[in-house]
Known about the structure:
The chain is about 25% helix and about 25% strand. By secondary structure, it is an alpha+beta fold. The two termini are about 35 Å apart.
Amino acid sequence: MHGSYLRFPRDLPVVGKCVVVSLRVRRFVCVEESRPRKTFAGQVPGLTRRFGRRTERLRSTLVSVGLALAGRAGARMTDAFGAPAGTLC
């Protein structure tokens, strides 16, 4: 293990309150000489993506609203259930 860092991806709101997950991600050193990258971070499958600021649940919900309503109607809907698409908590 090389080290670790914290990530804070947003999740779906609960009872109208913004939820932010505190996630410690471990970094590992690769001992294989043929690899171009010497360190890599462990990902949590199904929870986040690389460089993602939202959990997969929130991302898929916002995608569904965006495809169904689009534009201002979609923005109003996400505001109504407490997960604004363009702003952070």
